[in-house]
Amino acid sequence: xxxxxxxxxxxxxxxxxxxxxxxxxxxxxxxxxxxxxxxxxxxxxxxxxxxxxxxxxxxxxxxxxxxxxxxxxxxxxxxxxxxxxxxxxxxxxxxxxxxxxxxxxxxxxxxxxxxxxxxxxxxxxxxxxxxxxxxxxxxxxxxxxxxxxxxxxxxxxxxxxxxxxxxxxxxxxxxxxxxxxxxxxxxxxxxxxxxxxxxxxxxxxxxxxxxxxxxxxxxxxxxxxxxxxxxxxxxxxxxxxxxxxxxxxxxxxxxxxxxxxxxxxxxxxxxxxxxxxxxxxxxxxxxxxxxxxxxxxxxxxx
Length: 302
Hints:
By secondary structure, the chain is of the alpha+beta class. 23% of the residues lie in helices and 20% in strands. It has six helices and ten strands; from the N terminus they run αβαβββββββααααββ. It has a four-stranded antiparallel beta sheet. The protein has a four-stranded antiparallel beta sheet with strand order 2-3-4-8, covered by helices on one side. The chain has a two-stranded antiparallel ribbon with strand order 9-10. The chain is elongated. Mean pLDDT is 92; it is low at 81-86.
């Protein structure tokens, strides 16, 4: 599933490709793609046609396009400060396991798993939602331009300028759970998924089952700092692509897989000490650790 760096790559592509443009038509090719929009596909389409996309925003792994309805008074009478007034809607997207938002030339061949097509009043490039497994989806959030209600419970992520480290450290150390479980909890700190949790834990030399209540402030600072560092590096590389299910809006794969230190490297030597990376089952997923650099705690919490 795309994590913070991958979603941010997509957000930046949407900012380049669709912000400032007016939606002319919306074609829903598969109703499951808009299942999160309660009133259904017809309402989804009606709510979007004529709207101008004024911003591409993200919190953690959630992405949304802020919308501006057509003015009911002449544009010359609208104050500049009202470009994005409270109450405007948002198009919320969750990519799931295989969702892609692609900005492609108008008239280019349809993708095999095309689910929703957006065309624009300028007859330029189209926005297409493509999803092989249909785990992702789109919805219109009424009044959600600044922060959609379905995203409000998600914590600020480490790359957000509003992120405050000290409160997160306090909440982390107050919990009674395993460290990796805490890092994956999007209500504590968002954007960190399985890949970047393992990479951050390796960089901080901490085991995923370390009880959070035994963490020192220095250790908590180290692992959260490592998460921010590794996700920033991944963002610079365009994210991590293990297959063609994650690509940018231009269809380009990320290259951070080449820089992974532990994730997916079971049986290979640790780049720091040379010991063999191991793989453990964890929450229906996998965790990758170095047995020497990340020794398990005496009383692990899973």
